Known about the structure:
Elements: H1 11-20, E1 25-26, H2 35-44, H3 51-71, E2 77-80, H4 88-95, E3 99-104, H5 107-120, E4 125-126, E5 129-130, E6 147-150, H6 160-174, E7 179-185, H7 190-196, H8 203-218, E8 228-235, E9 240-247, E10 251-255, E11 258-262, E12 267-274, H9 278-287, E13 291-297, E14 303-309
Parallel strand pairs: 1-12, 2-3, 2-6, 3-4, 3-5, 6-7
Antiparallel strand pairs: 7-14, 8-9, 9-12, 10-11, 13-14
Amino acid sequence: MEHIVAETSSDFAQAVLAGLGQPRKTIPARFFYDEAGSALFEDITRLPEYYPTRIETELLRRHGMEIADLVGRGRPLIEFGSGSSAKTPLMLEALETPVYVPIDISGDFLAASAAALAQAHRQVRVHPIAGDFTGPLRLPVLARPLVGFFPGSTLGNFPHAAAVDLLRSFRGTLGARAWLIIGIDTRKEAAILEAAYDDASGVTAAFNLNLLHRVNRELGGTIDVDSFAHRALWNDAVGRVEMHLVATRPMRFRAAGSVFEMAEGESIHTENSYKYTAEETRLLARTAGWQPVKSWFDADQQFGLHLWSAPETILEP
């Protein structure tokens, strides 16, 4: 059998070493999205239990022209965490966008989705950027003002302070007089939330467990993935859904050149998804330096689509 040498200098390796070395083990959610994980997430968005994609798509379809009336047509569109860009055509068409810049951490998945979108929308110049949108980004030279697009309730993956920092970073990247179109999930019954993150067909479980497969593939891991179980739960005290990988037996394994042990019932915390009331959403926007302009919700108030504007002058923090 060929020996696999772990690449311990990568961001992934460093995060795994740091996260598994803690008393309460964790691996950051941003590492879900290798090529396999990105494909699994696209499967999740089509599940009957996973309401955010379905509702947000309908809101974009219903209110896209109104958004275009407010922000103006012919603006470049910058999408943070673009994934498959499945919702993007709705905004490209409504905004009559000349230039689209999708940003995603999964380079191979980004290249494929950007190429498909460029083929389908030949009037749009597509400039994909493979990178982590949570850090500083250098955009191509574009006519201002810009329109940012952050759908899918991805903001919920960040704790409140980090969410504010991220939104401030978007404001700095997009510049003065920019607009941000953002989807944010709402607080609701625990049963609805938990089903959305633990579907009956097991796709979300496979998505979560793929993180361990990725450790084995890329970091020389020896994790017995079959000895972990997916768990999703609503934590009402902090307003978030949590995803965990729970050890079903005591185990010892290697990852990124180090040895780790886990007891039966111990978990690796892999994701948080914070949910917001309408008032919490407005407060979040203003704290990050954005001005709420308008919001749209479905009839059951399960998901919100929001339009925010940036000030005329952006000051460095």
